[in-house]
Amino acid sequence: MSFVTLDKMMRQINHDSSVEENGAPNNRHPNLPFFSFKTIMTATKNCDHKNKLGQGGFGSVYKGCLVNGQEIAVKRLSRDSGQGKVEFKNEITLLVKLQHRNLVRLLGCCFEKEERMLVYEYLPNKSLDFFIFDQNQRSSLDWVKRFEIICGIARGVLYLHQDSRLKIIHRDLKASNVLLDAAMNPKISDFGMARIFGEDEIQARTKRVVGTYGYMSPEYAMEGRYSTKSDVFSYGVLLLEIIAGKRNTHCEIGRDSPNLIGHVWTLWTEERALDIVDPALNQSYPLDIVLRCIQIGLLCVQENAINRPSMLEIVFMLCNETPLCPPQKPAFYSMATMNCKNHQHQDLQ
């Protein structure tokens, strides 16, 4: 099956924007079906504010329902979003080639005049951060579900790094970019910052560092170097956040460490690592498995990228009882010591 580039899609749209009357997309290119602007407007009730799911630097996301009853999520690019256009094209280029149960599914797109929209499967349970960082919602995630989410995210990242047709570095893995379906299965989203690596390519470097404070690896934040091990670092932060129910950038009065991973390390060295576990779990969890997950998280956030495990090794460690290496001191780079009140959950653009 051939891949159609965005430029070719755009040229075809100018010649043929026909869409079936029942609201289903034209499937002339099965790789990425096209939706008409009219279909999207009908589905979202003209992008009614009541249907708005969220907003980012690229534009807004709306919930919609096609005439056949299928619920969708529509990402509408803002007309004045310069960088957003690059990320928009990047997301299409990647998602059109990817298919995995732990990645959000792209259903189609809409290009008409100045309008640029992406159509995704609708995931009713919002994003992971809505649950793990909310005082009232955290209790709805017991340990069994949290562990399933931890494993599901790992499988999704492993697919990006190794099992798909491409080798992809996500570069912005974080709780708000993990969506949850009706059964609370995790789906990695937002591939606007992602990059494709060649088969033999190990790392790359950029002058434009993009991502989110608290999730970026030190080599990426400080030097612009990124690789699969950058995603591993982000995954480790996310794993520890799921266990603790707190952001990595969360500050607590009287705590020596400026971030969560530093606090976890301190407790680990004092053999009190389980003190970090979210109180909302009410101590209803298997101590050995949780302690193992904490150790895996610490292995992922080690300062030297070479020492971090690969995603294949992480999935194996999560699914087996093989002995684990002792973790080394995690990365404490300068951005982590900034005044966290000014940088909590802040995106770098």
Task: Describe the protein in words.
This protein has two domains: 6-121, Phosphorylase Kinase, domain 1 (2-Layer Sandwich), CATH 3.30.200; 128-348, Transferase(Phosphotransferase), domain 1. By secondary structure, it is of the alpha+beta class. The two termini are 35 Å apart. It contains eleven helices and 13 strands. A hairpin with a 5-residue loop joins strand 2 and strand 3 (71-77).
| Mass-distribution shape | globular
Q: Tell me the CATH superfamily of the largest domain.
A: Transferase(Phosphotransferase) domain 1
- Compute the CA-based radius of gyration: 21 Å
Distance between the termini: 35 Å
Instruction: Give the structural class.
Output: alpha+beta
Number of strands: 13
Proportion of residues in extended strands: 15-25%
CATH fold category name of the largest domain: Transferase(Phosphotransferase), domain 1
Low-confidence stretches: 1-6, 12-22, 333-346
CATH class designation of the largest domain: Mainly Alpha
Largest sheet composition? 5 strands, antiparallel
Helix content: 25-40%
If you average the pLDDT, what whole number results?
85
**In DSSP terms, counting alpha (H) and pi (I) runs of 4 or more, how many helices?**
11
Give the CATH architecture of the largest domain: Orthogonal Bundle
Count of the separate structural domains: 2
Strand ordering within the main sheet? 1-2-3-5-4
Q: Topology as H/E string?
A: HHEEEHEEHHEEEEEEHEHHHHHE
